[in-house]
DNA sequence: CTGAAAGCGCTTACAG
DNA sequence: CTGAAAGCGCTTACAG
């Protein structure tokens, strides 16, 4: 591989001058610059990021994104949004998909990342533990969280409590009293802020409306289509079937809808279903849902990181430390008053 | 940040010994090793990847994956499979989502990657141009392609021609003669191998069955749900509606199914629909489809890269240069003989 | 088993 | 405008 020395030899100047010329620094004569650029092109010169990084203080121009499951619509969309903004600004994206494995989480967050392979980190969907906050802070890693919030770091999210309240209130207003919840009940050692907040929001809204909580109406849906379908089947089998279901994600809601159809339970006449996200498919299946801006959350998180890294408030305006994006109830044909 | 020098001073040995001790190299006394390890832990030592890379010949332990759209099920799943295998072996994944933008493609493939930020590259869904092959080869970048094939590099894929033949033959055998195609017709400057191969397969199968090709039956579906829906609507409006549709992806097929439902066209009585992928949702909507192993393609591509990078055939067995994974027709309720 | 020294490919004051 | 030289944080023969 051709190095800066080859260019120096080729053009008859010093490596220092080559370096300046290549990077467009001032105080290089146009003639010299042209000679150097030409040689670089001819010899197919490409700088070594390792050498550049070492010599100029360790920047990698890389941002790591840690997600739970790239294959879920929410996460894939967030990554898409963040990657786009970061790449525009010349940053590369290192993707870590921890896939619900607590070990992987530990390895990535507590070992891998601190290895200085990225300048900053976007954590999506995980509520960082105090240990993680301490460790990453100690190693000087700038972090923004997406979908959860800790006081130490900037964050982007929607108000998951409000999301649940919106959905459940809608069902209550329609006259439902037996309302099931399909979400994620067990954490499996991961700290997942979102499922917990939505479950709490569901419970609180019912309680405040004077509806007694029924633990048998809280089902595990694993935040997947299949999990939602399993939960739906379970619900359809019951003699005291609820009249409505609040699903903490659209993908789970789709599963419930399919289970209902298979069981011959009509939606919305016999069962109302509401989801969260406004997944691209929600429109087509007529799912009432609480829409959240997903792509935008990814973009905002990326901007917060860039601001932190480059400190240019001018370009992005003032980015709040804790950004909370609005959500909105989208009425479609999967909800109606109980018959 | 604490460096190898701090550890050397702290433990009273040379940096050379510290380096050996840290990396578990032989010829270090147990006592010394323990002292060094202890100091490293106490001082929170983390090696600088830049320094390591520079000193030991430029390896980054990073593999780049270039995809078209992370948000599409196929790509997200491939990334998931590849990332998992790579991370297990200690490699990080750099994700480039070029999003159908030819400029982004140029910038990433022809500029960014060659910058030595990754040891190797997995290209997903793009048919590399001769220029790209030449350029990346010249820069010594190991590449494997997924979903396309060039003679110069290993590849993993399914036989897209056979995929289309399977789907269309199924429809022909059911007795259909007017069979539409929904896929991607225009390339927009990207070289997409898959859409082209499926379209050609569709045409060839019809031709060989003696069915005259009707250009008005080839519709643009952009490989998205919405694109499929648009194409579906267009088809439903026609007076000479086809009796069957072959969609080059399940997501487009879902769109067609929704369009049919909205138009009151019954599936499969009045319209047969077959897709490609076996998307997780296909089962629930009863879509007949040609299943391809998606996760596995990602895993195999990762293994091919690792083999190339580490040259250990033992662990992975012999990995063929060009791997073609089998596909299979999955019969469900969206296809039937024309009425 | 351990150390001194060169070297990886750049950048960056400091002189001139 | 340009160059000599030190330095970034490691690894790696080479001696001992």
UniProtKB/TrEMBL annotation, chains A, B:
Presence of the UniProt keyword Transcription regulation in the record: yes
Residues annotated as signal peptide: none
HTH lacI-type domain segment(s): 2-56
Pfam families, per the entry: LacI (PF00356), Peripla_BP_3 (PF13377)
SMART domains reported in the protein's UniProt record: HTH_LACI (SM00354)
Keywords, sorted A to Z: DNA-binding, Transcription, Transcription regulation
GO MF terms held by the record: DNA-binding transcription factor activity; transcription cis-regulatory region binding
The protein's name: DNA-binding LacI/PurR family transcriptional regulator
Originating species: Nocardioides marinus
Lineage: Bacteria, Bacillati, Actinomycetota, Actinomycetes, Propionibacteriales
